Amino acid sequence: MSLSQGAGNQAATYYMTEGDPTWNESKKKAFTTIPNGTFRTYYVTLSDIPNWAGKTVKRLRLDPTTTTTPTDAVQVDYMKLSNTYSWEFSAAGNNEGWTAATSRVSDPVWPNHVTGGNLIFNTERTDANGHPLIYGPYPLELASTGFPRCLEMRLRFTPAADENTDPFNAYLRYTLTTDARLVPSGIDRFDYPGHPRIVVSSIPADSQWHTVTFSLPTSGTIDQFRIEPTGISPQIGKHGKLEIDYMRAVYY
User: Fold this and answer.
1) pLDDT tens digits, 139-196
2) Which residue spans within 192-231 are E strands per DSSP?
3) Are strands 221-228 and 134-135 parallel, antiparallel or unpaired?
4) Same domain, 116 and 241
């Protein structure tokens, strides 16, 4: 939805179902807003509400502000439903299941690294002995059969003073639910030679916000993502700070 508020920093979406035609807290999703009087786009994930799955939704309700002052203007440009899976990083200190895999991701406040609505961490130069790895939540169970899609990310990379500003490749790996029975015990599924499942996207190193996309498969069920933000070993990576505003698995 696109929403503009003059005051208040909380809003909420409610829904009614065919079997429970009432407004109540069990069918509510609250979200944080920015009350600066300008339009901002908010993505509200309803699929993680325990009683959402398998229900027929009959009505939706938006409570756009927590304030009751009559002079506080609220404007809604549009609202729409879409089939997405997203990580918005809107709650400070909540990494939404994403974790660092090596010490080469060197943010000193990890894992409480979500601040200002962004997932933030520092990256180091790497060598043949390792490279930064960020693992997503597991098990994800993101079914893709019949729905071409991409993983869309809005991010910004700020190079360190001793780093160049050349663009670089970031890598997204994913595993499918079927991989567990195909990969020998004791081997990381992401590194198994028979299942590379790697998607590449070029990232500018210009300290500006960019939206990049990684193509995803059209069949199978993805059960985990791994991001290699500054390249694959033994490639030398980038030294700097990477900020991620959001990540969304988008149907199109």
Assistant:
1) 777 776 555 478 889 999 999 898 889 988 888 888 888 776 555 555 567 766 655 5
2) 198-203, 210-216, 221-228
3) antiparallel
4) yes
CA nearest neighbour of 43 among 74, 9, 89: 89
In this structure, the answer to whether residues 60 and 98 fall within a common structural domain is no
C-alpha–C-alpha distance, residues 213 and 224, integer Å: 17
**What CATH number corresponds to the domain at position 138?**
2.60.120.260
Residue 128: predicted pLDDT: 47
Question: Per DSSP, what are the bridge partners of residue 216?
Answer: 149
Q: Nearest 5°: CA angle at 8, between 2 and 11? A: 50
Closest by Cα among 218, 79, 220 to 141: 220
How would DSSP label each residue in 105-148? B--TTTTS-EETTEEEEEE---BTTB---EE--S---EE-TT--
230 or 247, which is more confident: 247
Instruction: Name the residue range of residue 127's domain.
Output: 87-251
The answer to whether residues 15 and 27 touch, using CB atoms and an 8 Å cutoff, is: yes
The type of residue at 150 is: C
- Of 130, 127, 122, 121, nearest to 98 (Cα)? 121
| Distant-in-sequence, close-in-space partners of 61: CB < 8 Å, separation ≥ 6 | 13, 14, 15, 16, 23
Task: Give the total number of structural domains in the chain.
Answer: 2
Query: Could you write out the three-class secondary structure of 20-77?
Result: CCCCCHHHEEEEECCCCCCCEECCCCCCCCCCCCCCCEEEEEEECCCCCCCCCCEEEE
